[in-house]
Amino acid sequence: MSTITTLGYALLGLVKAEPRTGYALRMVFEMTPMGNYSSSPGSIYPALKGLEKQGLITAESAGKRKSVLHITPEGRKQFDDWLTAPMGLEESVDTALLRFAFLHDHPDRQVTLEFLTTFITTMSARASGLRTWLAGDEAQAMPLQARLAVGHGLRSLEASAQWASEAYVELKGEVK
Predict the structure, then answer these.
(1) Phi, psi of 39 (to 5 degrees)
(2) How big is the CA angle at 111 (ends 13 and 48), to the nearest 5 degrees?
(3) 117 Cβ partners below 8 Å, 6+ apart?
(4) Rounded CA gap, 105 and 53, in Å?
(5) What's the pLDDT band for 176 if we cut at 50, 70, 90?
(6) 56 partner at 20 to 30 Å CA-CA among 65, 80, 148, 169?
(7) CA 160 → CA 71, 97, 133, 152, 163, distances in Å?
(8) pTM exceeding 0.90
(9) Which region, left, alpha or beta, applies to residue 42 given φ > 0 means left and ψ of -120 to 50 means alpha?
(10) Can you state the angle between helices 22-31 and 6-17, rounded to 10 degrees?
(11) Residue whose C-alpha is closest to residue 85's, from 102, 71, 99, 101
């Protein structure tokens, strides 16, 4: 079976939330911050065809040249497995935040809290590694602007960890 891309997971999540046409999905990407993943018909429609070929979504005819897409049980399983997996060191922050956003309707809030815990741990580990690297000889030999750019990356990681800590506290307060 093919690997599902981040765009594929975003599409699965949207179709899981509400069956939609390809055009309606494209409009979500075009009109919301999800455009970060692509609003291009040249990306979205091939990704949908790939998901359909893998048996993760089905297309139900809805009239002239129109199909409504539905998630299949296998698509739901693949999406839920991705959604609830701990964040790995190699996962991008954008992908992790997409998963966090889709966790909003997960029936067990503890899953979201566990996700945030791994997010905090991952961001902190990345920041620690960058801090150590910046203090080393290799970083000191780099041009100043390159070190400053890496410093921006460090601050972004630290800010992400701080955000996740605050989100954890806020969401934990909802759980009574």
Answers:
(1) -120, 5
(2) 15
(3) 168
(4) 27
(5) low
(6) 65
(7) 32, 10, 19, 12, 5
(8) no
(9) alpha
(10) 110
(11) 99
CA-to-CA dists, residue 13 to 62, 108, 134, angstroms: 21, 17, 38
Residue 175 contacts by C-beta under 8 Å, 6 or more apart in sequence? Answer: 109, 110, 113
Distance (Å, whole) CA 117 – CA 74: 28
- Count the neighbouring beta carbons within 10 Å of the beta carbon of residue 48: 24
Q: Which of 88-92, 116-120, 145-149 has the lowest mean pLDDT?
A: 88-92
Do 162 and 125 contact (CB within 8 A), yes or no?
no
| CB burial string 78-115: b at 16+ within 10 A, e below | bbeebbeeebeeebeeebbbbbbebbeeeeeeeebbeb
CA distance 171 to 88: 22
Spatial contact of 19 and 38, defined as CB atoms under 8 Å apart: no
pLDDT band per the 50, 70, 90 thresholds, residue 124: very high
For residues 2-20, give the mean pLDDT. 93
How do residues 99-115 score in pLDDT, each as one tens digit?
999 999 899 999 999 99
